[in-house]
Write a structure and sequence with these properties.
Blueprint: H1 6-13, H2 21-32, H3 37-47, H4 51-60, E1 72-77, H5 80-83, H6 87-98, E2 111-116, E3 128-130, E4 133-135, H7 140-153
Parallel strand pairs: 1-2
Antiparallel strand pairs: 1-3, 3-4
The structure holds FE2/S2 (inorganic) cluster.
Length: 157
């Protein structure tokens, strides 16, 4: 039996309710790591929502991406409180380990690196967010270990 596209499975799961659009987009993004145009077209057709409205929602919320993203997204907070606790050193280590700059994705589509200005967890700074999980008091050495562990998890050395 042919497998249903993840976005259509999400539409079905939420009964196609417009009030659940954000959850449907979240579930779609979780599958693809971004919102591909084809998936948005499927959602548009299945829910009767114009593409322009879907793009409006997808661009309004920072959590959504219309660009392909890596399997893992590593976000380094560069807000003031994190900055004074050496978030720049953490970011430099992440750039070195991943070989990419903030806003970029590795060629193998495994990692995307992002920066953000304060996520409201200043007391824990420097804060790094890995696939939505917040880590506090991250040092450059710890950042390196985190990336190594993720790479090992993907069967890399
Ligand atoms: S400055 Fe990093 S969490 Fe506030």
């Amino acid at each position: 039996m042919e497998q249903k596209a993840p976005e259509l499975a999400a539409v079905e799961k939420y009964g196609g309710r417009r009030s659940c659009l954000i959850q449907i987009l979240h579930e779609t993004q979780r599958e693809y790591h971004y919102l591909p145009e084809k998936a948005l077209r499927n959602i548009s057709k299945a829910m009767g929502i114009p593409m322009t409205d879907l793009y409006g929602v997808a661009t309004f919320f920072k959590a959504f991406s219309l660009e392909p993203k890596g399997k893992h997204t590593i976000t380094c907070c560069m807000g003031t409180a994190c900055h004074v606790r050496n978030s720049q050193g953490v970011l430099d280590e992440l750039r070195r380990c991943l070989g990419i700059e903030p806003g970029q994705t590795t060629d193998d589509m495994m990692f995307s690196l992002e920066t953000v200005n304060c996520v409201g967890a200043c007391a824990l700074g420097p804060v790094v967010i890995i696939d939505g999980e917040y880590l506090g008091e991250v040092t450059p050495a710890r950042a390196k270990k985190i990336v190594q562990r993720l790479m090992e998890g993907e069967g890399k050395d």
